[in-house]
Amino acid sequence: MFKHLQKWFVTHFLGHSRRRARLVSKDGRCNIEFGNVEAQSRLIFFVDIWTTVLDLKWRYKMTIFITAFLGSWFFFGLLWYAVAYIHKDLPEFHPSANHTPCVEHINGLTSAFLFSLETQVTIGYGFRCVTEQCGTAIFLLIFQSILGVIINSFMCGAILAKISRPKKRAKTITFSKNAVISKRGGKLCLLIRVANLRKSLLIGSHIYGKLLKTTITPEGETIILDQININFVVDAGNENLFFISPLTIYHVIDHTSPFFHMAAETLPQQDFELVVFLDGTVESTSATCQVRTSYVPEEVLWGYRFAPMVSKTKEGKYRVDFHNFSKTVEVETPHCAMCLYNEKDAQARMKRGYDNPNFILSEVSETDDTKM
């Protein structure tokens, strides 16, 4: 009881006082900013304008969408008004009865704007139309029609690509709140649970991890956010996962693992961030998506395992209870990986010994006199 109270006190009080900075949040967002970027480098974003528009937030994208159409309609409306003004088609010039205008029924800036809108979106009410009187109006009509198709294609394509991005599909992939360390198959493992909330599968799924920590090289160089590969597997491997039900992935803590020299007592004092990645192809759209999450030392529970969550009903169906998705159960676990492997080595050495049943221990009495 005292152990649980002590752990709760450390987690809720001391943990808040020294909250660790994350590079990757629990929902996969990267906590990083770029400073002192040269102005010339910022122009590269406009060279790759398609990716820049796709990465914009919805409020900025809709602002660009509305501005592009309204701006082009108003701009060409000014040009149509200029054509009517130069050709003296406006009522203020009092044209003669036999005067043929460049565009029929343009009486001012408002009617020029309406004609520009009708031309670009191909409404074609039939009231205002271009005549063969002047070639300038014909050229302007062709130019606006071509430019209008380009604007429609770009903006509608950007909206469609934004909606169909697999980033939203990644929201239906969830990881457990905590990672646990316990024995699995006779080995000490770090376990994480991941679930697919949709019935559609992720094709060619691959899962892996990166351990981020600050290291100092033998030359004395300090490397912040040094990355160490962490191999995660399930019982069938770490590629082409059959992701129909929640999976428990695990990392074997052996001599090559960066967790090998950690213990249950020293784990909370460690300074690292474990980032877990899941890559896969969306079955319905064939788009590749990536799901990310991270764990800090306070979120790694030593001596626990996940509660079971898959059962079989009387009707023969498999039922997944997500109430137990992040629920953990305390189990007996060695307090360090080195202790487990030392115990195994001792047992192996004992097995290599032999017992001789004919061996008899006899006592020999020592005498002071020795006969020559």
UniProtKB/TrEMBL annotation:
Keywords: Cell membrane, Ion channel, Ion transport, Membrane, Potassium, Potassium transport, Transmembrane, Transmembrane helix, Transport, Voltage-gated channel. Residues 173-345 form the Inward rectifier potassium channel C-terminal domain. The keyword NAD does not apply. One of its GO terms (molecular function) is ATP-activated inward rectifier potassium channel activity. Residues 24-166 form the Potassium channel inwardly rectifying transmembrane domain. The record marks N152 as: Role in the control of polyamine-mediated channel gating and in the blocking by intracellular magnesium. It is found in: Cell membrane; Membrane. GO terms for biological process: potassium ion import across plasma membrane; regulation of monoatomic ion transmembrane transport. It catalyses: K(+)(in) = K(+)(out). It is a multi-pass membrane protein. GO terms for cellular component: monoatomic ion channel complex; plasma membrane. InterPro entries: Ig_E-set, IRK_C, K_chnl_inward-rec_Kir, K_chnl_inward-rec_Kir1.1, K_chnl_inward-rec_Kir_cyto, Kir_TM. The chain crosses the membrane at residues 64-86, 137-161. Belongs to the inward rectifier-type potassium channel (TC 1.A.2.1) family. This is ATP-sensitive inward rectifier potassium channel 1. It comes from Balaenoptera musculus.
